[in-house]
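3.2 Worked example (two chains)
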Amino acid sequence: MGFLKRSFISICRQPVKSGIFFFLITILSILSARAIFVRQAIVNTDQNLRSMMPSISTIVQDNQVVEEGEEFAILSLDVILQIGDFPQVRSFDYSINLRWGVSASELNPWDNLDFAPSPMSWKYDEEFGVHLIVEGVSSPSFLDIREDFLELINGRGFTESELATNDLPYPVVISTGLAEVNDFEIGSIFEAQVLVFDHIERTDGSLAVNQDEPPLIKESFTLEVVGIFKPAFPTLPADATLDEAFQQDILQYQMHHRLFVPNIVAEKMFNVRAQGDLEPDDVFFQNFFLLHDPHDFEEFSLAVQNLPGNWLVADFSSGFRDISAAMINVGDVADFIFFMTTGATLILTALLVVLFLHDRKHEVGIYLALGENKQKIIVQMILELIPLAILGMALALFVGNVLADALS
């Protein structure tokens, strides 16, 4: 009888021993496989977090150098475009923002009916109407929509010609809330006014806007709705405090009363508010840089600091690095567990093989007495163990993969 046939018969002849060996190999392999797949689950979770928590940065002048006497500087458009070409940058945008001084007397304000203290006086003025927030954009598909921070549910963004010309009426993208309360649709036209008031001195010496007197400047801008977006808001917890609900109400108001216009239009509005004194080099662009990976921030920040001027990079995603650092530590623990379990598996498997062979020393002696070749006896023993080991490891990989998928 050949040694191949003998190995097969030996497996079937000793089902209990074969079963025990198969069971032990499977359990030991599951421990190693689980460590591997847990490590992979940690890597997958880290990648998912990076895609879900984009790294957004903005560049500002270092306040310390201003306090030390250096003249306040404005980040020019040329430098913004230069930074946008850095390898760490996935996407970027720049805009002119007007967070006060723009109103619309013809519009109805959006109100949060779920929040009892609304409406609030700062949202609406009996004489000048709804307070609006204007944000200029530089590209047809601007960053908020391009990166799915907002959802454009109707209409479109801006065309290249609209971004470069001042043709009336000026295009605007508005929120669903503002569209609903004013029955606006694509093509609707309304007027927004830029107001400039005189200032009065408070008792503490600071200046305040004097709205008791008529505005010094009031210029209207005719706007045509070309797109309607749906704002996104964080979900309040069920046990949110009144202050948290109040902050959420402010955020919702700001989002629903936010107008997106081409930068060229926002610049005209800004120049009105500056009472016509704005020079091209004085235009302040709010900048946003979305990085490929939150871990690129340090390298990106160093590259910006090497540019002429004293610039700092403000990071809006530092929380991710705290989470990522914790996950790296967990990954290190998983690696340690993997090496420990793999080492233990190899040692225990070797002991099992020795025990099984020791149990069959009389059988080996009979084979030798019958003139069987030693090499063939060794191959026979190996062939008896290999199928059981392969089946056990295959089952372990399947179980470990299922557990890792459930974990990640």
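3.2.1 Second chain
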Amino acid sequence: MVVKAVESVLVGLGIAAVCFVPYLAYQYRRYGQFSASRLVWSAALLIYGTALASYTLFPLPSAAYCARPHDLLVLDPTVYFRDMWAMHRDGQAWTDVLTSWTCLQLVLNVLLFMPLGVVVRHLWQVRVLGATLLGCGISLLIETTQFTGNWFTAPCPYRVADVGDVMTNTLGAWLGAVIALVIPRLAADPDVMAAARNFAKPVTRGRRYAGMLFDVAWAGLVYATVRVAMAVVYVGVMGADGYDRAKAFSFGQTSAIVSQVVCLVLVLLPALIGSGASMGQRLVYLKPVPGRPNPRLWLVVRALVVAGVALVLLFWGAHWLAWAWLITAVVWVLPRPRGLSLTVAGCQLVDTRVPAGGAH
């Protein structure tokens, strides 16, 4: 039980880490700002989902288990109560009945779905009825998955599909949604955030780092895509029989250079268009404003000071120096959100949206 809980947390956190950048981008485009509380509760929902999958689908059955017949379908929703009544009728005290595994299983089925009701109410603003129906639907999906042996992918059905579980799970989702009505909101109100989406907000270190993170993620994605595409073309042209280690190494170096050149173009191109902001800065509603003559020239300088220099260093094989330069740029934001590139280029960084209470 404890091992499954730890595994669920680790898997959920892993999925959350992979989804962090896309989710952060979604928050900025949907709400115009970052909400730590919504991010935390979204991660909690992922962990909760992996926990549900872990507890309801694993471990998979062995061949010995599948060789024996099992009754794995329960359509009587009163089984829990009839079993507990039978235990009392056979002479067990009610204290023993209420602490038995049968009663504990019923209670756990309710408790298992209570967090779902709370989270979807606060995170998605689902009404009590909607949260209850969602809990019922998820429980039905789980029981159907168990009845069909993971949709016929497991060696055999190996978990009991119980109508009583659907009822207790649904009750848990309803209780969680009701509890959510009387406790403080645990996530920022999406309607309030969306209403303020088009108004300017302070240029904080968090926004600067978010923009830098988007730029790095975008460059990394482009770099990897170009290299993979070139590798696929190379293998397709050369074929398995034409593989040569020396040629493959040489091609790998060539593809790395091509990928770096493509990234350099993608760094430079935004500086020549519109506000001159990088892709990441545009995503978080920021733009550089040059304070010197020939503003476009200084926008290009801003684009090349960090990313351009790092790519050139990578091109010449000075990898450690390139990483040291990137780390310097990251640390530079700590004392002043303007950062290294804008300081060198003599640019200020402003919000692109309408100031609150006035025209842009």
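3.3 Remarks
The CA atoms of residues 305 and 341 lie 5 Å apart.
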